[in-house]
Specification:
This protein is an alpha+beta fold. The chain has two domains: 87-171, 2-Layer Sandwich (Phosphorylase Kinase, domain 1), CATH 3.30.200; 178-413, Orthogonal Bundle (Transferase(Phosphotransferase), domain 1), CATH 1.10.510.10. The chain is built from twelve helices and eleven strands. It has helices spanning 2-78, 87-93, 135-146, 178-182, 193-213, 269-274, 279-295, 302-308, 312-321, 339-352, 363-371, 390-398; strands spanning 102-106, 109-115, 121-127, 156-162, 165-171, 217-219, 228-230, 236-238, 245-247, 255-256, 276-277. The strands form four sheets. A five-stranded antiparallel beta sheet has the order 1-2-3-5-4, sandwiched between helices. A hairpin with a 5-residue loop joins strand 7 (228-230) and strand 8.
Length: 420
Amino acid sequence: MEYFHKYRRHLKDSPQTQNSTAQGIQSKSNSSSAEIPVVVSILVVVICCTCFYFIYCWRWRKRNAIRRAQVQSLVTLSKLDLPLMDFSTIVEATNSFSESNKLGEGGFGPVYKGALSSGHEIAVKRLSAKSRQGTVEFQNEVESIAKLQHRNLVKLLGCCVHKEEKLLIYEFVPNGSLDAFLFDSKKSSQLDWKTRHDIILGIARGLIYLHEDSQVKFIHRDLKASNVLLDDRMNPKISDFGLAKCFYGEDSNEVNTGKVVGTLGYMAPEYALNGTFSIKSDVFSFGVLLLEILNGQRNSSAYHLQQHDDTLLHHAWILWTEDRASEFIDPTLSNSCSANEVSRCFHTGLLCVQENPEERPTMSTVLLMLISDQMQLPSPTEPSNYARSNTVLDFLRGRDTASSHNESLNGVTITSIGPR
């Protein structure tokens, strides 16, 4: 009987046990659901921390790579016979790169006038962080011009690499660049015929040194009016060697490059269209510059195409074929020019801009053509009219034409990587 009563009590207690068990299971289920957001949050935090860690490591390695590159640049530059100037000295010389000392600005960044504690005036080319000219072009310019010494080449006094700063220190050339005079209606009157003729001869001698007389042959690749500086006596100095190419030995064959850089209007057709350049490419640029000096206007730029619907070279060729060469000369020269010298310059300029590079003379022959009354000049062939091609015309119409009128007070500042 007692056993029976215990069994009944057990039956009464069983539902409570089952209920408690169910409640326990439900409690555990609720607890598990509450833990899921916590686990997810922890995983998100871990993933984010891991990503930040990898980003930090990547940036750290990148900064170290930049530092190593700067150190390597300094090591390379220190091997050259060129002073490495202290950044604080340049800051003091330019009055902390003040706007009042700013001479001009190009694709690379600004250029400033400065004065060292000795009183020596300098021009500081400052490569900006956003410049299209990179470390390679900077080092190329330093290594190139440090090896060159000629009265018709601008003199590099030193350089400076400080953190992100890259600076080139040149002699200060007080009269600035040729384009500031040549294409200015007021200043051009200061360039009488004797001055222009001397400038032409000086540029030719500078190129002869680069092509033939220096220990290493150089092709400038960006010869133009803004890259010719005028000293206090109006003597020309070729500047800006950021795009220059040097060659060792006697190899003077044409070189093909996959990247065309320079300035439209001065580029030889084989270079602008096919990427092939040689010393004859510089001869073409010299011919364009010579004709600009005679005429006082730019060649195939957006400006000239808009004003005349033609290029300066094609205009010169038409006048040549119609025996009206005298009409090509800048009217301001009428009272000061020598007809014989002007005629020889015009003829030589057309020989330099012939389409076939093999028909162009070398620069040493060009100089003889300019100074010798006894030398018979061959008849030129028609210059290339590539500047009027659809590709080039579309490019000129689409760009900011204001850049064609920019004048630099010190042409050492102008370098453009890519056509402009």
